[in-house]
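Appendix B: complex inputs.
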Amino acid sequence: MRAVIMHSPGNVSVVDRPDPRIEQPTDAVIRLAATCICGSDLWPYRGANEVDEAPMGHEYVGYVEEVGPDVRTVKVGDFVVGSFMASDNTCEICAAGYQSRCVNVHPMGGIGTQAEYARIPMADGTLVATPAPPEADLLPSYLAASDVLGTGWFAADAAEVRPGKTVAVVGDGAVGLLGVLAAREMGADRIIAMSRHADRQELARAFGATDIVAERGREGVAAVKELTGGLGAHSVVEAVGTQESMMQAVRATRPGGHVGFVGVSHGVELPGDKLFYSAVHLHGGPAPVRRYLPDLMRRIAAREIDPGRVFDLSLPLEQAAEGYRAMDRREAIKVMLTV
Amino acid sequence: MRAVIMHSPGNVSVVDRPDPRIEQPTDAVIRLAATCICGSDLWPYRGANEVDEAPMGHEYVGYVEEVGPDVRTVKVGDFVVGSFMASDNTCEICAAGYQSRCVNVHPMGGIGTQAEYARIPMADGTLVATPAPPEADLLPSYLAASDVLGTGWFAADAAEVRPGKTVAVVGDGAVGLLGVLAAREMGADRIIAMSRHADRQELARAFGATDIVAERGREGVAAVKELTGGLGAHSVVEAVGTQESMMQAVRATRPGGHVGFVGVSHGVELPGDKLFYSAVHLHGGPAPVRRYLPDLMRRIAAREIDPGRVFDLSLPLEQAAEGYRAMDRREAIKVMLTV
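Resulting structure:
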């Protein structure tokens, strides 16, 4: 099959790799309908993480091609969505809603879903099938559910967004923008999107942002406080993962408020005293997307939400390298790769 | 009046200071019945915080001596308990239960309650009166409510202790021990006290600990995991405030679990990536003791709880210096000063 490999930072191409096959009786193999490039794929692309001939991609929608003998809940031909973390969905941690930390967790990034086919471990626990094949125009939204929508949703949930609350969102990538959408769906009273880019501001407004703050760091915090009677937001979504963005999120939150952080942490050191006196709640990490998938897929099928709008560039899988370049240069918010 | 002054690290004495008086119409002046020495008073005593001729003490029970013209809810002669943070109890932050971060907050430590009398700002918001003068043997328990009980209670609440959960408590000072008591009252299924001292282990068991772990750091975490099927505790109370204790708390918590941290943070830097992948909830800070006072005082009056047992040494105010020495040398868990 054809599949994306990152040879070294900045060096991506599509190459021939062996077709995946059933390795465990609980595996499935899917034929990708679409996959995409994640903001987190840019960390190794930019040299911030080590990378050496790595398969890429952890987001996926597609059709079940083959199932192992122990697979019960999906069958050949089903259209399925799964999380970027394969999980058994039965262990005590999964049962508590933390499938991304399943005791048997298998990161899909190690398998690589920017490819024609992918093996899905623990298919019953990982995959959710639609009742019928999806309408073609919903494909991007289902693909978003695989990671960025689920991650933005988890961030808003971790930030305890509720009706009547004011929410601030730090980060205007796909996850931050979908954090805005999630906050709207959860009934937030006011949603402050922190963004300096006109196109992303526009999408944030379309997803439900009521206010835009272009400033960053201390100025950004001051602007959020000015919008909230000096107190700070009730809930803040952090969707970047840097020291500046984390501290911006903590400082923009009122005492007793909630920070939901999902930006993959890079070089962050949280000063304990600042955290102590902030009196905020802090929760985050790799989003347990699987927890939300059935609900999110229902909302997509019902056309209640349109998360697929974050894909502002669609390319064939063979042009993956161009997709990486476009995201790296911020020429695209998020790139879908059709297979 | 007589009052404790810390002249410099390790140098405490009782001196004459001017009697406090009503400064604002919302002030009260109380005559102390008892006060005490806090674990946090040991930070400056040991030179970890700067100190220069500072009044000391922020825990207090006593009788209202005088009230300003705008005070409505307490009257002269009432027996009252208040938090270590004076608060208006009406602002938006107080209304959300975070009185220790009240927009008009006034730290009682700046006033100094290791004294015969103390001015209490915002008396209506800060003080809670008992319906009748308390029975003498309950005095220590009411005094504990002023900080260490309320702080241990908040930590257990922040750690979302619930029936059926397993709780671990890092720190065997008064706050940690009362975190054990709080966890018992909140219905925890299993309570693991982390302590190396026989006397404190004994009190932890009396307060409801079901298991004792004497190991610290990585060995302590391994011991908690062994007691919890490899997963870690659902809820962990952190009551020390060092890098080691914070990381011990985070690592001893299962993914999706909750850390309630109340140890005043000293030199802590939380690595963002460790926090991210831990997937725990983190909440803490200066405890909003005022939120819990009415409930805690009712439980004390009904003799449902006996938090006063953390005072294993009682001295007259004049012997405060001896009390500091005893706590510094760990010869006493917590010292009550009678006035």
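Residues 289-301 of chain B form the longest helix (13 residues).
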